[in-house]
């Protein structure tokens, strides 16, 4: 499946700004036209920065396989930064603990309920703290397992059996979870698969080409879904 027309990022971001009722948005500069994924720099001790090649590689793959106007490098943003609201999609991964202050939780809540999207990928070690901290952000919503029929598994490439298994952690099948706000998915969380490891340079984890291909295709699906739903 291919996107019918070229996705222009500014109109989506301006829609986010228009929906928000916060002085935080008043400070924003005009965003770039290219789609850039912003990695969240969080506190708590987890390695939020691991595998620096993953997002550039995903964006390069998207440039070759979609009609999305993409940049070629990631952005890094803290939740309290004004720049957070300039990015339609933010990404979080790591092996360790995540901690969000009350201020950060409230700010991420505003971002998500105003049109932003969070993709979190458990890199074996962040699951327990992520589940605890995301409850601070959206206390009235629950992480629910996403059925294989959901559009996120079919938005560009076909994954009829849900998430591919990229790396073995605890055994068992990979699982995708989502949080919905007013009927719209605002958080997608991949567990027991580590999709983003498969985006890394080939020599980092030694994954075979077919595994890296699956990871990049699923990553593309997540980003395309976030931009079009």
Description of the molecule:
The chain is α/β, with parallel strands linked by helices and 229 residues long. It has a single domain (9-228), classed as Rossmann fold. It is built from six helices and seven strands; from the N terminus they run αβαββαβαβββαα. Strands 2-1-3-4-7-6-5 form a seven-stranded mixed sheet. Helix 2 packs across helix 6 and helix 3 packs across helix 4 (127-137). The relative contact order is 0.17.
Cα(first) to Cα(last) distance is 16 Å
Low-confidence blocks of residues: 1-31
The tally of beta strands, per DSSP, is: 7
What is the top-level CATH class?
Alpha Beta
Kindly give the count of domains.
1
Strand/helix succession: HEHEEHEHEEEHH
Task: Provide the β-strand percentage band.
Answer: 15-25%
Shape: globular
**Residues in helix, %:** 25-40%
Output the number of helix runs.
6
């Amino acid at each position: 499946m291919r996107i019918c027309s070229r996705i222009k990022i500014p109109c989506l971001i301006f829609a986010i700004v228009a929906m928000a009722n916060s002085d935080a948005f008043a400070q924003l500069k005009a965003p770039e036209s290219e789609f850039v994924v912003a990695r969240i720099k969080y506190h708590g001790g987890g390695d939020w920065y691991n595998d620096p090649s993953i997002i550039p590689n995903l964006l390069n793959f998207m440039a070759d396989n979609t009609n999305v106007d993409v940049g070629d490098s990631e952005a890094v943003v803290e939740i309290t930064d004004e720049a957070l609201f300039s990015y339609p999609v933010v990404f979080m991964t790591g092996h360790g603990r995540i901690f969000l202050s009350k201020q950060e939780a409230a700010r991420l809540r505003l971002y998500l309920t105003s049109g932003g999207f969070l993709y979190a990928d458990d890199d074996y070690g962040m699951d327990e703290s992520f589940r605890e901290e995301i409850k601070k952000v959206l206390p009235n919503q629950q992480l629910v397992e996403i059925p294989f029929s959901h559009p996120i598994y079919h938005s560009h490439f076909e994954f009829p059996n849900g998430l591919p298994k990229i790396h073995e952690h605890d055994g068992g099948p990979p699982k995708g979870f989502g949080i919905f706000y007013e009927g719209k998915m605002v958080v997608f969380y991949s567990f027991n698969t580590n999709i983003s490891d498969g985006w890394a340079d080939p020599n980092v984890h030694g994954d075979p080409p077919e595994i890296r291909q699956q990871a990049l295709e699923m990553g593309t699906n997540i980003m395309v879904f976030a931009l079009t739903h």
